[in-house]
Specification:
alpha+beta; four-stranded mixed β-sheet; 10 strands; 31% strand
């Protein structure tokens, strides 16, 4: 699919490394194929991140987490419990510090450089156990529907349609 007048829609797919039996590789491939074959996005970038990353400014995974958390705050949702921050003590190194625990798979959608959506996310209201989770798979469906609506509006132009 080529870029539309509205800009380039790009998806970032982040995932943990494959561990025997966790099925991450096949899930990531299914998601990637869905994005590429569905025509909902112009580009798909895939990257691997560790299960935990130091909560240190300047690291790629932490900066990605902060960007996602900022998006969530601006949109009245939360990236928790998919992302968690916690204190980690290392007896081996004699150090302790905050770490970010990443989800197995996360999907972010951009229009040019503007972050439009992050999956998974939850409603920000209520107890963690009661929040509705919007999954990566939910996101795939939303991206497809929204893209078709935008493309259709481009085709229609200024026409007024009865509702």
């Amino acid at each position: 699919m080529s870029e539309t007048q509205m800009g380039t829609v790009r998806a970032e797919l982040h995932h943990r490394p494959e561990v025997p039996g966790n099925g991450i590789t096949s899930r990531v491939e299914d998601i990637r194929e869905s994005l590429e074959d569905g025509g909902a996005v112009d580009e798909v970038d895939v990257s691997v991140w560790s299960r935990e990353t130091p909560a240190s400014p300047g690291t790629r995974a932490f900066e990605t987490y902060r960007r996602f958390a900022d998006w969530a705050d601006q949109n009245g949702v939360s990236v928790e419990p998919a992302f968690k921050t916690r204190r980690r003590d290392s007896e081996l190194l004699g150090e302790s510090g905050e770490v970010v625990v990443t989800p197995c798979v996360a999907l972010a959608v951009y229009l040019d450089d503007t972050l439009l959506a992050v999956y998974p996310h939850t409603d920000a209201d209520g107890d963690t156990d009661d929040r509705e989770v919007v999954t990566v798979e939910d996101g795939l469906a939303e991206i497809d529907v929204e893209r078709r609506v935008v493309i259709r509006e481009d085709e229609i132009g200024e026409q007024v349609l009865p509702v």
